[in-house]
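Q: I'm a student working through a structural biology exercise. My instructor gave each of us a protein and asked us to get a predicted structure, then write a short paragraph describing it. Mine is ATPase. I'm not confident about reading structure output yet, so if you can add a plain explanation after the tokens, that would really help. Here is the sequence I was given:
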Amino acid sequence: MLQTLAVENYRSLRHLVVPLSQLTVVTGANGTGKSSVYRSLRLLAEASLGGAVSGLAREGGLASTLWAGPGTISKGMRLGEEPIQGTRRTAPVALRLGFASDDLSYSIEFGLPVPSDRTLFSLDPEIKVESVWSGMALRPGTLLTERRGADVRMRDERGDWMHHPYRARPFESVLSEYSDPQTAPELYALREMLRSWRFYDHLRTDAGAPARRLTPGTRTPVLPADGSSLAAALQTVRELGTGLDEAIDRAFPGSSLVVDGRDGLFDFGLRQPGMLRALASAELSDGTIRYLLWVAALLSPRPPKLLVLNEPETSLHPDLTEPLAELIADAATRSQVIVVTHSTRLADALPRASRIHLAKDTGETTVVGQGMLDEPAWTWPKR
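A: Happy to help. First, here is the predicted structure for ATPase. I'll explain a few features afterward.
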């Protein structure tokens, strides 16, 4: 289980080190950095697929995603007694992401590319440092893999350092380039763990949404990130999982889900009390479709190691908040769950969750009630 998330210089997250639990809720007003926390987790997952650099490029390049404020914020700046102004840099420009877990921990540092007239990929940041270590604390004795620039070294079977003969490319993570179950089992295990993480963000429910389309009826134990194959995913939960009918009845008392699989194309509807026929997917409201999407995602017969939900309350009627919270709490018995939400009602409906409440101070995201001594222990590898 992830115990700590650390982010430095990513958008408004100048310095963020927070503890994570089996169920963590990230709250705060609009613009306080909740989406940046969500995106930072996605970037960590994309590193395992070799997509973190391209992900940053899609956001406008490293220069657009870096913390835009001063390197040091004085007390006078925070109190408004001094103007906000730049300070002399004492360290290289860097965006850092990392996490600590019970088993394997990881960090990655992105820096500005070296100017060159030999490439047009000027928005691509370069990976400067990567580290993988065992357990929570980064120490010389726990370090398993270390990448500095193009040089990569790993522990061999005896625990001795071995320099890899293949030099790392500046845009490729060691997780995507060097993971091999025979020669680098720790890297392979970490990569597979990151690839198992699952993210759901603003699932569409409009008339043309993938969730409303007829799709071939194949077993779908994992709801796709765009919400497609919803009918097949719901039927898979019904046949291979548990709790589907109870979740429907909890949200829509007396109603039941109907899945039509004729001609190999699946559609779904909702049979409601007093109706002579089931309402087809095209007739259901956006809020109803969205709740059914969360049923399919949260009751997945193939639960992930980590499940991250971004504002799952969007488009839901307030009366569906408690049923959604019960689904989330149930999912947290099978997966570690992180919920990013601006809904106080949803957060309050998850009383057993640890809560991270974000606020803005002089443009910087801070954790309400967290002092320097309250942060989890964290050390960034040196460049």
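A: Here are two points you could use in your paragraph. The first strand starts at residue 2 and ends at 10. The chain has two domains: 2-26+33-197+357-374, 200-293. It's a good idea to check both against the output above yourself.
Q: Great, thank you!
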